[in-house]
Structure formats: structure tokens, C-alpha cells
């Protein structure tokens, strides 16, 4: 995989070519990644995958017209042709009064703290196989597990470099390690499956493979012989591994492009309470070893920790340059970068732990459900209407009872957020971390 110096040099050369062909301004973003994964099933090698990829995206501006183009061909003649075509495309594009480079005075100056995103450890295929085998062996050893869908271990590296025609040129790299296992319990029509998976920037931050495999097996066995719950309005508790999806819906509605196009259920709610005052939503792009940590965004603006929701009150929108210009606001350092124009994304997110245990959170629930898995995409981003397939466990008289499946949970996100309560079981190992979350008065329906 290329190094940062090479990536920055390619970006700078491409911008220089674009300027020579008539671009008034330009930026170039280079990405590179490599990964290796080993999978096993029933004690035998299932697959070995090795992948590498590189690409560079050029965005040019001619007056108020712009165009974006991407390539993975770095031959001098190919880059020359790419720059020429990009400028020609921009000249033929309609004017866009909102697109442009980030304000020069707001560009990141390298003041972020060390993020420690790169691990020197580089496991070879033999080590990856041993870790996958250990995870699967532990999963299959759980009483009640009858089959395995396999286990895998992987390692990867990535690099992102950004250069602009008005003076920004920086890059950063990252690594990741991952282990996962999936098992089956029961037989025939009564089979159930579940999984466990963990990722980390550094190998030493991963749990032992045996712990991950054992958790996958225990989760599977706990789901055997599920019932279909009776319907009604009742409290729903979202387990941390699915509760993070609620944060995803909230942050998606805070994205500047959605606000600018008036396609968000949070319209006109900036500065108002959308969560109980006991709940914050915190973003920290500078978390050491964080899965979404980054020193700068896709347009060269610095990223900074902030409360997106402070004591229940929505603080504002997540803005790239274009959406900020449309709304008459300042960009917030949330630009994401792909092959085309910048989008919007958030960094590491979490809801802080509440003050009660999960046992206390459910203690007064006479009849409710604990959701541990969600399916489907039944969320309306404009209205906030929410309906998703689910499985999990009944809650009866304050206790977690038997497994349930084939039901839906439904409500409206604004009403759901207003009724949210948090337990104290927060663990910080995902990109979006939440404790168990209780929401009152949702509609549960068996299918």
C-alpha cells in the first residue's frame, strides 16, 4: 500500500494539472486500503481473502461550476487526461452558488491531539487462522450449539490524504483488527442463530478470541424456542448492540443536506429539547484509537469534540461547506469524502451512561420487550415514523423472561426520543456506543 508522502504528491500533481488546464480551484482526495481475512467453519479453512485498493478523486471549480472525477490509473498521461476532462466537465456543468472549497481561515492547522490509530502489529495469515479457530472452537463448545456458520479474523490498513489548491495538504493512516463468530442452535424449523463480533484499531484492545466465540454461542442458545409476543403498547428496551441504530437515525436527521432539502423530521427543532434533559449525545473525533477518529474532515476542516445534544437540547446541524452555504451557516467539520462531492458524516458518538442498572431500568415493567436484534429499514426520515422487525426477550414483572421473535416495534422517533431513559451499562468499543435504552409506549405487534 502507498505511503502518505506518495499519496500527497499524487494529489498535489493532479491539482497542478487541473490548474494548468484552467481550473480556478481544486482539491484531490486519495484513499488506499489493504486487508486480509481468514475464515474457518467446522474446524476447516473456509476462505482466505486478500484485497488492496487505491483511488484518487479530483474536484475542480471553474467559476461557480464544478465537477468531480476519480481514477486509479496514476500514469502521467492518465492524470493529464483526467485533469483535462474534469475541467471540461466543470465548464459544461450548471452553476452552483453553494459549492466551493472550505474557507482558508478555517482549515485545520494540525492541532488535534495524537489519535494513535495505527498499530505496529501486523498478524500473518497463520495467526489470523489461529484466532478464527479459537473463536469457533469456543463457540461450538457451548452446550446447545448444533452447528457453526463460521468464524473469521481480519486485519487491515487504510490511508486518507487530502490536498487543496489553497494550501491544505495532510494525510493520516489507520489500522483495524476484527474477530467474529456466528453459530446455530436447535434443528429444522426451530433453528436459531446469533453472533458476536469485535473490531479495534489495536490488536491489544480486542477481547480474546475465545471470549468472542463463547459469547456468540451463549447468545444463540439463549434464543432457542422463541415465542411470538402478544401485541400492544408497552415499554421497549433496546440492547446496546441495537440501540446505537437509534443514534444513527437521529444523526442522519441532523445532516445538513437533509435540513437544506427540508427532508428531515428535525426541521425547525434546532435549540429545542428532543431528548430528556438527563441525556446527552456526544461526538468525539479525537478519541484515541477510536473507530471513527479523524484529525480533519473531508474538506480539510478540523474536527472537534462537541455535544450534539446537550441536556436533551439539539445543538445544531452537521454541515459540510455546500450545506452550510445553503443554510447561511458556518461549516462544522463533518464533511465526508468519496468519489463525488463531499457528503456528511459524524465521528465517534456515544450517549453517556445513566444512573441506574439495567435491572433497575426494567424493574417496574410488568409487560414489555427487550430487543436484541432488528431487521428491515422501516424508518421514514421525513416524518420520523418508525417500524422495524425485531427479536429478543420478553420482560415480565421486571424480569427478563423467555426469547421472542417475529414481531415488530413501532412508533415515531420524536416521541420515542422524548421518552428515552438510559441504564448505566455503557461500554466504549463501537463507533456508536450507547447503554441499554428504555422507551415507553411503543407499539409491539406479532407477525
Q: Based on CA inertia axes, which overall geometry fits? A: globular
Across the major sheet, the strand order is 3-2-1-4-5-6
Strands, count: 19
What is the terminal-to-terminal distance? 49 Å
Any overview of this molecule?
Residues 27-90 form the Metalloprotease TldD/E N-terminal domain. Belongs to the peptidase U62 family. It comes from Pelagerythrobacter marensis. Residues 124-224 form the Metalloprotease TldD/E central domain. One of its GO terms (cellular component) is cytosol. Helix content is 23%, strand content 36%. The model has no long low-confidence stretch (mean pLDDT 96). A hairpin with a 2-residue loop joins β2 (44-62) and β3 (65-71). By secondary structure, the protein is α+β, with helices and mostly antiparallel strands. It is built from nine helices and 19 strands. Among the domains are: 4-36 and 47-106, PmbA/TldD superfamily (PmbA/TldD fold); 232-245 and 353-446, no CATH class; 267-347, no CATH class. The relative contact order is 0.13. α1 crosses α2 and α3 packs parallel to α4. The strands form four sheets. A six-stranded antiparallel sheet has the order 3-2-1-4-5-6. Strands 7-14-15-16-19 form a five-stranded mixed barrel.
Structure at a glance:
It holds the Pfam family PmbA_TldD_1st. By secondary structure, this protein is of the alpha+beta class. The protein contains nine helices and 19 strands.
